[in-house]
Structure formats: C-alpha cells, structure tokens
C-alpha cells in the first residue's frame, strides 16, 4: 500500500493535496505534519513512497531539508510545494536533490501531472520553468549566449508579444501555442516589465515607435 507524507503547515493546502492524492491512489495512507521537525520524526520512524514538502514549513531550512530527509531515506520521492516564485527556486531545489517542484497556485491537473511524473522517478518542473529554460539555453550559433530578439526579448516572449499586439487574449494564445494560460500570463508580465509598459495599448505604441 502506498504511503505519503505531507509536510505542510496550512490546513487548507493539506486538504486539497489529500483530495487529489485520494483520487489518484484510493488505497493510499496519508500522514500529515505541520512542521519540519514533526515531518522528520515521521521520516525516521516510517517508510514513505512520496513526500510533499513545503519549502516554507516552520522549522525548515531551505534546501538543507532535502539533505536531512535523504540522510534517513535516500530513495524517497520528494516533491517540493511552494507559493514562492518557481522560476527563482525550482531549479535550485531540483539540483539539491528534490524530484520535482510544484507551485501551490497550480491547477488540479498540473498537480496530478507532477505527482505521477515524480512517482515514475522522473523530474518535474512546470511548463513555465521549462519554457524559461528553453529561452535561456545556450546554443552553438549564439556562441553560448542566450538568443535574444532586437528588443531584448526571448524568441518565445517576442512570439507572445506579437500575438498580444494582434489583439489575442491570453487563453487564445495559450491554445495556439499549446501552453497553459498561467504560462502565457507569466510571459505577458515579463514582456510588460522588460518593455516598461502596463497595458497592451502601451505595448503596441512602443513597438510601433
């Protein structure tokens, strides 16, 4: 029987996690901990197939939490869950030994994808992070530098920008590019920031100048 540990101090978050986990694995045993030390006590005393770990759990110390868990259970699957900016933290936690990183704002389907992916012993990061990696990957043609458009935007950002200027909504762009709406919204916010605008109208004027 599968056994899963939730190390999360927010009751409502644990409840939503439990709902999804029970749908995925009807026979699952779920253990809850509202602090890192409580979670470690469970790790020391029991075997778990999966741990959902909040990076801001009381008593936790960032990436060191992964190291402590691995000292006791080297093979356990660890899925980090956080409200923090995934583009800032996801890769550093994956590098530190986590199997995946999931935003707490993720929709139900993404949570299911994240869980099923890490349970197959694969790494998981959201499409947002994957797109960011693709945008910043080094290429031989660019001499190891990020490929940028003349406006300083990545190719994907330029693509989204052009569609915004044409009057397309976020959901339409997501459908056309086969991305999640949240991912497109992230690109939109990044474009606005880089271009120094606050609306599509301002963006259109700036690009047209």
TrEMBL record:
Pfam families reported for this sequence: GerE, Response_reg
Entries under InterPro entries matching the protein: CheY-like_superfamily, NreC/VraR/RcsB-like_REC, Sig_transdc_resp-reg_C-effctor, Sig_transdc_resp-reg_receiver, Tscrpt_reg_LuxR_C, WalR-like, WH-like_DNA-bd_sf
GO terms assigned for molecular function: DNA binding
4-aspartylphosphate sites (modified residues): 54
Keywords assigned by UniProt, alphabetized: DNA-binding, Phosphoprotein, Transcription, Transcription regulation
HTH luxR-type domain span: 146-209
GO biological process: phosphorelay signal transduction system; regulation of DNA-templated transcription
Family matches, as PROSITE patterns: HTH_LUXR_1, HTH_LUXR_2, RESPONSE_REGULATORY
Keyword Membrane on entry: no
Response regulatory domain mapped to chain residues: 3-119
Protein name, per record: Two component transcriptional regulator, LuxR family
Organism whose genome encodes this protein: Dyadobacter soli
